[in-house]
């Protein structure tokens, strides 16, 4: 069954224009979406943020940030746009006891809702408006009137009007232009996102790492390997053409030798080992809630992330990358 896709004509922007919209966090997504809402005629915007560089940026942008607790008390709509691993703690300590009755929670990441990490009042609507790009892209495309992909969903609807509110917000940030916003769910958004982060991209990065090691062991120069693998930006161009014209159809821009090499190898790769590994990651680590349980411990998360960064710094491809970049951009560290 095809998913529902929502366009500007499906929305009523006056709904969000009539509400007090409180942003919890003025970072990556918070700033972009707050500016987009303001430019769409939403005049009652409250920025809730701790007193840091993000709060300073909010003041420079013409807002008057308040505490997270005060923002929660004022908001008809709460835009929860702080990092996934911080949401449960902030929710419990600063938001939960200050929520306005019959308000709406909006998330841009399905993670905490999907894994039931937030205790949400019975009278609170819960919706997701999840742009599929970083905040800077959300802002730039809004200003340039360029469509961008976005997932939307209704997770809890005690008011009976959650979908209308959700689509009004999506319209105001520019997410229902062009191809429209795709109906989804927090479980789907979080599952796919975590799968890409824990299965797909790590496999791609490991392939590049081991490819570098094999080529270097064969006597090829580090400069030539890195330029051919990614410093030329050819992979970026390939992915852009894949997005525009098709995952396989982009091969028509490659040489016949390249086409044969890629197709003949891929067609005979049964993928069994990869599927088994991916199945384990998706079901045993992600959908089981095992990862979410660990990652909600902010102290553990910070320590583990620091360990992983320290370990990767010793990889030959990382050290070669640093050396080659200093050669091709000698003033990079000045």
Automatic annotation (TrEMBL):
Pathway where it operates: Amino-acid biosynthesis; L-valine biosynthesis; L-valine from pyruvate: step 2/4; Amino-acid biosynthesis; L-isoleucine biosynthesis; L-isoleucine from 2-oxobutanoate: step 2/4
Biological-process GO terms, alphabetical: isoleucine biosynthetic process; L-valine biosynthetic process
Residue span(s) of domain KARI C-terminal knotted: 185-331
Domain KARI N-terminal Rossmann: 3-184
Coiled coil segments of this chain: none
InterPro entries from the UniProt entry: 6-PGluconate_DH-like_C_sf, KARI, KARI_C, KARI_N, NAD(P)-bd_dom_sf
Gene Ontology molecular function terms on file: ketol-acid reductoisomerase activity; metal ion binding
SUPFAM superfamilies recorded: 6-phosphogluconate dehydrogenase C-terminal domain-like (SSF48179), NAD(P)-binding Rossmann-fold domains (SSF51735)
Pfam families: KARI_C, KARI_N
Residues annotated as binding Mg(2+) 2: 193
Chain sites annotated for binding Mg(2+) 1: 193, 197
Alphabetically ordered keywords of this record: Amino-acid biosynthesis, Branched-chain amino acid biosynthesis, Magnesium, Metal-binding, Oxidoreductase
Family note: Belongs to the ketol-acid reductoisomerase family.
Protein name: Acetohydroxy-acid reductoisomerase
Organism listed in the record: Rotaria magnacalcarata
């Amino acid at each position: 069954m095809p998913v529902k896709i929502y366009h500007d004509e499906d929305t009523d922007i006056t709904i969000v224009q009539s509400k007090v919209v409180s942003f919890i966090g003025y970072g990556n997504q918070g700033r972009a979406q707050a500016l987009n809402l303001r430019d769409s005629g939403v005049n009652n915007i409250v920025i809730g943020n701790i007193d840091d560089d993000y709060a300073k940026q909010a003041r420079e942008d013409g807002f008057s940030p308040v505490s997270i607790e005060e923002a929660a008390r004022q908001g008809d709509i709460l835009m929860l746009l702080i990092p996934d691993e911080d949401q449960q703690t902030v929710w419990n300590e600063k938001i939960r006891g200050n929520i306005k009755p019959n308000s709406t929670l909006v998330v841009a990441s399905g993670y905490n809702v999907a894994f039931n990490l937030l205790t949400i009042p019975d009278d609170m609507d819960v919706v997701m408006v999840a742009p599929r790009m970083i905040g800077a892209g959300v802002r730039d495309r809004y200003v340039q009137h360029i469509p961008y992909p976005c997932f939307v969903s209704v997770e809890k609807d005690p008011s009976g009007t959650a979908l209308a509110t959700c689509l009004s917000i999506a319209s105001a940030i520019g997410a229902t232009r062009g191809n429209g916003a795709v109906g989804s769910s927090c479980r789907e958004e979080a599952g796919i996102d975590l799968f890409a982060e824990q299965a797909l991209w790590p496999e791609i990065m490991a392939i590049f790492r081991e490819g570098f090691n094999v080529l270097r062991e064969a006597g090829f120069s580090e400069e030539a390997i890195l330029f051919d693998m990614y410093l030329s930006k050819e992979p970026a161009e390939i992915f852009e053409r894949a997005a525009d014209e098709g995952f396989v159809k982009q091969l028509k821009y490659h040489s016949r030798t390249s086409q044969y090499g890629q197709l003949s190898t891929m067609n005979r790769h049964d993928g069994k080992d990869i599927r088994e590994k991916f199945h384990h990651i998706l079901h045993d680590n992600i959908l089981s809630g095992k990862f979410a349980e660990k990652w909600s411990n902010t102290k553990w998360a910070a320590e583990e992330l620091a360990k992983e960064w320290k370990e990767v710094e010793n990889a030959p491809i990382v050290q070669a990358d640093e050396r080659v970049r200093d050669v091709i951009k000698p003033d990079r560290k000045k």
